[in-house]
Amino acid sequence: MKFISFTLLSFLFTIASVAQNKNVLKTSETTTTTIKDSDGEKKIVKKEDTQEIQKIELKDEKPNTLNIEMKETPVEVIKTTQITNADGTTRTVDVDRSGYYQGENNTKYKIALDSQGYTLIYDANKKPDLLRKTSINTYIYRNKNTTAISYFDTDGNLVIETYNDKNDTVTTQKYLKIKE
């Protein structure tokens, strides 16, 4: 009975030591933004968690050596962003698309996270345009006169497609992501 218990215990410790075959690096960055406007002061907290996971693989074993070198393997990066709004609600964003974009006539636009999606700002004195996420990974674009469908392409550029019901056409505007 002791032999079976000892063997079972040894087996469990062996499995536990073999199961840890990943390097994991977790980092967290918190940014607090305070916005002052006519409604008062609002505080938005943005927390970005980054997890880098790398599987550990060993190179071929050489005879009469104790140490075996580790093989370079790809690193999987998982990034999540949580936004806590001034009213206390929290939402999770898979990919943060905030940044500066270049539109028509080399106009510079700023896309920033807000409580329900993004805002598109081109003039600080005007009300910002809104981008609201849909269930099919696109956004509803809304400004004073227009409601349209928008999305981010594979290069990270913002594409807005607007339907014109007078001539039954769709016009496309592309805002290029400015690398900083």
What do you see in this structure?
The chain has 180 residues and is mainly beta. It has 1 helix and 14 strands. It has one helix at 2-18; strands at residues 22-37, 40-55, 57-58, 70-71, 75-84, 90-93, 99-102, 108-113, 117-121, 129-133, 139-142, 147-152, 158-164, 169-177. Strands 7-8-9-10-11-12-13-14 form an 8-stranded antiparallel barrel. Strands 1-2-5-6 form a 4-stranded antiparallel sheet, with no helix packed on it. β13 and β14 (169-177) form a beta hairpin.
Task: Give a nutshell description of this structure.
The chain has 180 residues and is mainly beta.
Question: Any descriptors?
Answer:
180 residues, mainly beta
Helices and strands, with pairings:
Elements: H1 2-18, E1 22-37, E2 40-55, E3 57-58, E4 70-71, E5 75-84, E6 90-93, E7 99-102, E8 108-113, E9 117-121, E10 129-133, E11 139-142, E12 147-152, E13 158-164, E14 169-177
Antiparallel strand pairs: 1-2, 2-5, 3-4, 5-6, 7-8, 7-14, 8-9, 9-10, 10-11, 11-12, 12-13, 13-14
Strand order of the largest sheet: 7-8-9-10-11-12-13-14
Please, what is the average pLDDT?
A: 82
* SS field, number of helical segments: 1
The poorly predicted ranges are none
What does the largest sheet look like? 8 strands, antiparallel, barrel
Radius of gyration: 25 Å
Span from first to last CA?
Answer: 67 Å
Q: How are helices and strands ordered from N to C?
A: HEEEEEEEEEEEEEE
The helix content, as a percent range, equals under 10%
Percentage of β-strand residues: over 45%
**Got a strand count?**
14
**Global geometry:** elongated
Q: Briefly note the structural class of the backbone.
A: mainly beta
